[in-house]
Design goal:
Jelly Rolls, about 500 residues, about 0% helix, 2 domains, Tachylectin-2, Chain A, 31 strands, ten-stranded mixed beta sheet
Amino acid sequence: MKNHGMNPYLPSWEYVPDGEPHVFGKRVYIYGSHDRFAGYAFCQNDYVCWSAPVDDLTDWQYEGIIYTRAEAAHNEDGRQCLYAPDVTCGPDGRYYLYYALNETSAISVAVCDTPAGKYTYYGDVHYPDGTTLGARPGDEQQFDPGVLTEGETTWLYSGFFPPLVRGRTPACPPMMPGRTGALCYRLASDMLTVEQTYPAVVPGAQTAKGTGFEGHAFFEASSIRKVGDKYYFIYSSELSHELCYAVSDSPCRGFVYGGGPVGDGGFVYGGTLVDNADLGLCDTARYFTGNNHGSIEQINGRWYVFYHRHTNSSLFCRQGMVEPIEILPDGRIPQVEITTSGPNGTPLPAVELRELPAYAACNLYMTQPPQVNAEAGQNPFPYITQDGADVMPESESKPEAYICNLTPGTVVGFKYLNFQNVTKVSVKTRGMCYYGGFDVLLTADGEPIGTVSAARGNEWTWQTTELAIPDGISAIYFRMKGYGTLSLAAAKFH
């Protein structure tokens, strides 16, 4: 049976955010941070790599650990975490991994002969006199590197500009007195030496006032791609939960946002690529907001955006997501909605699925106040989680993912499925729900087409209800009703 790809595109127990997709040969490789389930900080695990054939984004393969915190320079005690990396193929045909540690203002580089082999430390990006980039007085903080190699030249992008908090930017560390936005550097063929520095290509929140970037200024997550003869700079905006893009004819100047130039040497803002709560497409969040980081890549003739979402009621348990995008003839990229079926490329065949896992929900939100006592230490909001600890792919047993803390009025949505001859719907639940189950809707704000009962108890139990779903391609939403609290593991269509 054919694999059917779903978001998140990696296994439910794998937490690889900040994804940078790159096609090398006939495979697409994902380089990102590596969160830990139930972790207390971002990026606590070592770098891993996953890959898939360019003609099948449903067939992801684990490539192993490619670089560890213990191997990283400036991290002798192993205390610092490996933040979002990027990879480029250098002029010598080797692969260069650019990264930053969470407490070090430097861009370090590791190298490997293959895209997904074992990387070894190569050096720090530095000025011609040997001074590390980020160490000179007045240097801005180096953070979240993005790289693009053209011939003998590599373009490096970096920077960090925190969003405004109550109208002001949080205080910068004393060694980083000023921040302007997204930074750009031209590197020599050795992949380390800075040949030229440039003014910020995309402004931060305070420097964006009066420009097309205002309201969507640079925050972090620099990424760069070349599309035809245009350069696309992808970044996380001051809103944090959206990925935006800017376009230029040059890798180091001329980017614009919203159709107007940004002074001398600035890029032009293009718009929002994706928002991890669908804000911009919806008036209210249809999933949890949190930071976002990713990029675009052309894979087998089609363009995609890779990004991440948040799970486990935490900022520190992020999973990779992917959606097809369209680059219009004029260069614009319309914002895409988050879906369940993204990596599949087409709607999921409802009946062919053995089951639809609840963690594949692309919408999860509440329409009524929760019926739990938050003062007693309970989290009142629904969230995706798992039974079991953090695991590596080599582990024999894998934890099961599900949605917990469902209360009346909670909506669990999936987009998109192809329904054909569906006459029954089953749900796998546990918990104490009285006189209820789920109303089933085909539109978020529509009328229910029926109700699916939910079993009551502390063990996972399937409950099946006769319910005809009209033939065709549609979203499907399960809105909890009754009294009490439920967990949802999966649904089936018969």
